[in-house]
Design brief:
The chain is an all-beta fold and 118 residues long. It is 0% helix and 52% strand. The chain starts with a strand and ends with a strand. It is globular. It contains no helices and eleven strands. The strands form two sheets. Strands 2, 4, 5, 6, 9, 10 and 11 form a seven-stranded mixed β-sheet that branches. Strands 1-3-8-7 form a four-stranded antiparallel β-sheet, with no helix packed on it.
Length: 118
């Protein structure tokens, strides 16, 4: 079993930055592909970014490409999402998730709210 705990959300003005963190425990963190997802009110949850087990492969949603950066520290069991040039449409609940090899996104955190004011 894996426990994921996000932190770092908050209220920021448009154009500002936030860094989200997701701390993992309970299983070898480096065996998991890690990802960030978000869900805005009234919308479905959407993919934001993912990073492979050793960080060599990174994928972003087109909507955040060039503004967000995902990274991980396997020694600390943490995955980060650096969010720059934030827009009001980035307002959402942000979740981190873990994907074991050959599986799907089995593990989810409780989420953290990000609100971007115009």
């Amino acid at each position: 079993q894996v426990q994921l705990v996000e932190s770092g959300g908050g209220l920021v003005q448009a154009g500002g930055s936030l860094r989200l963190s997701c701390a993992a425990s309970g299983r070898t963190f480096s065996s998991l592909t890690m990802g960030w997802f978000r869900q805005a009110p009234g919308k479905e949850r959407e993919f934001v970014a993912r990073i492979s087990r050793l960080g060599f492969t990174i994928t972003y949603a087109d909507s955040v490409k060039g503004r967000f950066t995902i990274s991980r520290d396997n020694a600390k069991n943490v995955v980060y999402l650096q969010m720059n040039s934030l827009k009001p449409e980035d307002t959402a609940f942000y979740y981190c998730a873990g994907e074991p090899p050959g599986s799907t996104w089995n593990y989810w955190g409780q989420g953290t709210q990000v609100t971007v004011s115009s």
